[in-house]
Every structure is written in C-alpha cells, then in structure tokens.
Amino acid sequence: MKTYTIASSVAERISTVNIQSRLLNNHPYTVKSKLLVLVPEEAFVSKFSIFIDGSEYVGKLVAKKERKATPNNETETQINVEVKFSETNTERGINIFETDIKLEAGAETTLSLTYNELLERRLGLYTQKIFVYPGQVVDTLAVSAAVMEHQGFEAFSYSVPNSDKSVSLSATLDPTVNSVLYQPTKIQQSIVSSKGINGQLVIEYDLKHEKDAGNNVIVEGYYFVHCFTPSGLKTMDKNILFVIDDSGSMDGTKIQQVRESMLSILDNLNSNDYCNIITFSSLVETWLSTPALASSKNIAKAKTFVNDNLYASGGTNINDALIEAIQSLKSSSVNVKRAQIIFFLTDGQPSSGITDTKRIRKNVMEENKGFAAIYCLGFGFDSDHNFLENLANENNGFSRQIYEDEDATEQLVDIYNEIKDPLLLDVKVNYDSKYVESTTNNKFHQYFNGTEIVVAGKVKKSGVLPADTVVVHGISKDGNLKMTSKSVTIRPVDENSSTKKLQDIKKIKQLIGKYFTYNSTESEKAQKDAIELAIENNFITKFTSFVLQAKSP
C-alpha cells in the first residue's frame, strides 16, 4: 500500500468521511487482494469507487433483491463487495466494508469510500470515532478532521490511534470551527506494530447550550433541523426496575461483572429515586413486590439481595421477568411526575417459558402500554440483537451491546449514567402545519441530562419558518413546560446540505425500525420508503447494496 488518507468533516452533527487507499502490485504475477475498510456501525456508506489500470468502477446503489449474481452488461464488473458485521471484541461498534479484487503484475488500484454518520450526544459529549486501519506500514498516512458547529464549542478534545492521551483544544479564531491533523511517519507507524497503525482517532466535543429552545433551529432551503438541549432544568425523580439475567450462560466472569456494576449503580441512585430488582433464569425472583425509596438503608438491603441472588443457573425466561417488572412499577404508589424505567440485561435468547420473540414483544407491549421505557442491554454476541432492538424501540427505549471484555462493568455503568438524570417527560416538538410539511419523529417519552433531541423536516416555502411557530412542550420537575424558539438561522441553499442529509438519515433509521413491526402492510411500506430514500442518497442499508460498474467516459 502506497498511501492511506482519511478526510473527515462534521457540520451540524453530520460527519462526511472519505477514506482512500492506493495499492501497487510489485510482483511479476497476478495477486488477489482483500481490502477492508472499517466504518461505524451507525454510519451509512454513501459512495464507493475503485480505479484499476486507469478505469474507474463506481458503486451503483440497488435494492438487494435486484442485485444480480452476474453482470448484466459489459460495463459491470465481477468485483465482490459486501458489508458484514465484525464479531470481535477488540473492534467494537464497526461494520467491515470488504472488497475482493485481482491485480495484474505491475497494476495499481485506488479505493475510495465515503460514509455519513449522525453524531449523537451521550453523557454530555458528541463523539466521532475514525477507524484507522491500513493493515500495514504505509509510505503516506494522513488523517484530517474538521468540525463546524454554529452553536460554538464548550469543549473539544481528541486522541490519536494507539494512544490513551487526550489533547484538549482551546478557543480558536473562529469559535465555531476546530480541526485535527494526524500524520505519523513510517518509523512512527512501525513502532506501533509491524502491521502499522490499528486504532481510532477519537474526537469528543460539546457545544454551548441555552435554557430556551432558540438558536438551535437551522433552515436551508426546504429543509430544517432543530436541536434541543436546554440547560438549567432540575433533575426529575425516577422509578427504576433492574431486570437481570442470571441464567446458566451468565456463569463466570459475566455474572461477576454484572454483580460489580449493580453494586456501583445502586450507590449512584438519586436520593429520591425508587428502585426494585428482578433476577431471572428459568424462574423469576423479585427483591420487593413494589419499588422502594433509594435510602441508605434500602440500598444496603438491595446490595445484599444482589450478592445473595446473582448466581448463574437455569434457562432464560424473559417474558415472565419483563411482565413482572412492568407490574411492579405500576404497583408503586409514587408515580406522578416520575420517569418510569426498566433496565433490562440478558446475554442470550429466551429458552424457558414463552420463547417466541414476537409473542414476547406482543405481551410486553400489551402489558406496558407505553407506561415505562425499556432499555435493553445485550451482553456478548449470543444475545438476540434484533429482538432487543425491536423490544426497546416498541417501548420508548434503546438497545445497546455490552462487549465481553475486562471493562464490561464500566460499560454497564456508563449506559446507566446515560439515563440516570431525567429532565423532561412526554416531550413533543410542535411545528405549525402552515409552514412545515413533514418532520422526523417529534415525540419523545423521556429526555435525559447529557443527551439531545433532534428533529428534522421539510418546510413548505424555501427558507421560511418563523421562530415563534416552533414550540416544545413537556413535563418538568416544576410542572408543565412550554418553550418557544427565539430565533431561526436561515442559510443559503447548499447542494451538499447537511440539513437534508440529517433529515434523510433519521428518516431511514425510523423506517427501518418500522419495518420490524407486526403489521405486514406497514412493514412493506416502510421497506419501500426506506429503499427509495436510500437510493436517493446512495446509502447502503439493510435493504440496499452496491453493484460496481464502469463509469461512463
């Protein structure tokens, strides 16, 4: 490999990352080469091309069902391209974009791949991870990254691959722009490993946030984005129920790490919170019939329950555990102005009681009826990720992977900390239909400290969205809340608008979520709409893929 370059730009939470690598076959014979590019699992690959001997082959996006096993004309090529999920503990949260090619003796090829990602705010920070993986020491390696955010930076830091040191950047001449350049020499690459650099360039930043909803609405032509991150709100109380899998497959290190994380989490409950604990294997065991105040006395009792009961054995009765959890929360006498949360962890698939995952989802939805948000954690790669993701989506939560590694305890505690401090309930962002044609999801069950609500949409008239027609409603600790936007930023139309791209990314993700529903008609429509939007943006998704074909002269 002669060169390996990555150029990244972030504009209003949307990253555009281009990776290029140039290879030369110095052998006197043809060689087969497998090129690997690592991209974040939440990103969408949007452009792909290969130059071979002066000819450019570009990725044409098609629905997967339309992809043919062989080329249908002379311009298509047999280059194999696929995206697969990496099942390794050392490379977390990635997809591998894999390409097989043949290189004749003396031939040269250049691969170019571009992806887009929506950066989410978690624990008070936006995080971008750029995977640097050339697979060998390269003559020229360079990574450049620029971040542009109109709100201005509150904090900005980065760390380079194969280093634990973080570098903080202070304010620049332009308070809305920061940049990073990483260019290790061949000697510096070889010091890391005989195979060169293998790590991540990680950028973390936060922005200036105001209490009112203003200054976070941007309109570009017919598209807008509204980012809502108010400050100064009081933390609301919560009722939280921990549902922990202690089946036989959790034996060993996993159950020990879960026990340690639970003891740490119990110590960090807010003083006015109410909590309960359910453990389940083939049978379900409950600490109390109804949640108890997180007093020092009750926390000590809860820790005793964890130490005495978290031992692995038996099957996995997910259905009964979740139904019991919902019923326990509903039985609490303190439910007014409280976030209702179920923190659910499992490492496997249902093997006891009701084992059909669709039936379990149906039972949980019917029992829950939107009462509690269910946050699902899959421990290791044996958990049913699709089931947990659908279960969380249907019950106003999210699903996360816990990787089997020495830091699993820290992973669990960090995810709890994301939902530790609820600030608002039943949030709805309203837009006047006189001005707005459509939006992404604008209703949110709970809003937590350190996160962000993002709504994107389309306006009826280019560049027109009056600030006083953008209103956020919700329930805070002090009662009903109403925030009207104070201003809207109008920008000129940009052909590569990040605003439209943000809207389309959010829409595609929501359509993919809708696809996994019980209503087959709704699923089919969601799939059709997702494919159309993906093809419009040239995004690889669950339903689309690339066919490489020669670029027309």
TrEMBL record:
Residues 1-117 form the VIT domain. It holds the Pfam family VIT. It comes from the Eukaryota. Signal peptide: none annotated. Gene3D superfamilies: von Willebrand factor, type A domain. SMART domains: VIT, VWA. InterPro entries: ITIH (IPR050934), VIT (IPR013694), VWF_A (IPR002035), vWFA_dom_sf (IPR036465). Residues 239-419 form the VWFA domain. PANTHER family: INTER-ALPHA-TRYPSIN INHIBITOR HEAVY CHAIN FAMILY MEMBER (PTHR10338), INTER-ALPHA-TRYPSIN INHIBITOR HEAVY CHAIN H4-LIKE PROTEIN (PTHR10338:SF108). This is VWFA domain-containing protein.
